[in-house]
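Possible regression after last week's pipeline update?

I re-ran a chain I had predicted before the update to compare outputs. Posting the input and the new output here so someone can diff against the archived version. Not blocking, just want to make sure nothing changed silently.
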Amino acid sequence: MVEESPGARDRGTSALANALGEAARVIAGVAEGRSLTTELERAAEEGDVPRAALIDLTHGTLRCYGRVQALERCLAERGGTDPSVRALLWCSFYALDSGRYAVYTVVDQAVRACALLGQHPAKGFVNAVLRNLLRNRSAIEASIALDEEARWKHPAWWIARLRRAYPSEWERVLEAGNGHPPMSLRVNLRRTTVSDYTARLATAGIAARQIGRAALLLERPIPVDRLPGFRAGDVSVQDAGAQRAAEYLELAAGQRVLDACAAPGGKSGHILEAAEVRLTALDADAQRSASIGRNLTRLGHRALLVVADCTGPATWWDGALFERILADVPCSSSGVVRRHPDIKWLRRESDVAGFAARQSAILQALWRLLAPGGKLLYVTCSVFVEENEGVVDAFCARTPQAQRLPLPQGAPAQLLPDAEHDGFYFALIAKRP
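New output (post-update):
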């Protein structure tokens, strides 16, 4: 008989089986190359598992990249296991590690989840694997202790890149990527002040502190519908690191500004809150571009919205040069992996070079649209040097008019993820007259 671990709590019986089964379907889809967002949308349409339970199991399991796989390799001797059963084991390992459930409940409900997945013959196998883990936990932990992927919960190639790039900080970056993201707000300074909005939060029982010009860090994440004035446009949810983009652009009234990869519109909204500029918000993805309009409508702002590829200006550009360009380019998203834990499962090392090539093409195309004396801000949410300094240094070396400028207040180009913000890279480049 499996004993209940000290302090563990039983969060339900059949509800947990349903949650484990649906989470296994989601995780199996991610393991096959589909995005977590796509799989969660499917689960919401097809199932009735509470979203909070599904988010906990799926995000927790995906954050444990390497560890759950190492446990499976150590425990599951049978070859050719069905993908959904493998995913069920991964989710069950996370559920046991989390301490949210009585251990006997996890074992029992994982076995029941086999039937929900149409995998009745796997019941005995799943039961045996989980009971083996609980009986021999110390020995099993010792057997995977030297596995770097199990220790750091990231792919080996990812760990190696960070170790080379940040010899004194790579461990901190990996640990941040395994954690829960902070929730930061951007106060709309056209409507209110940071101090006034902080007081409104306090009245609503929400603790927050200021960490930037318009940025507030919540003590703990909450649903957006609890935020006072959110629907009225008084505040937006935006990472404090991302909020630096509009500040670094050094905006002024009347400027012609291009947000070249604008979806979902967070930085576009901030640009329009910062100054009375003439903004063109551009994105190649029609579906994601719709969110730009919704965000700007909520904030009460207007911009020219264009659906087009920024590397093909002949299809959308009117020939008038821009004084400011924000190039928040597609990237590996390695600096925001704690928000999107499927990234660790979906990315391949070869993807980094592909992103760098695409980023270089975007930078080259947008440079033609920048007015002499104008400034372009290159931004990624990556911590990989190849997408950041590698791209910018190569561009400046081959472009005589390009002048790399220091960021305001001497801020570092590479912002590594921590308790207050995600990981970002910023490079401000001026075009010499």
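Follow-up from reviewer: compared with the archived run. The chain has 18 helices and twelve strands. Marking as no regression found.
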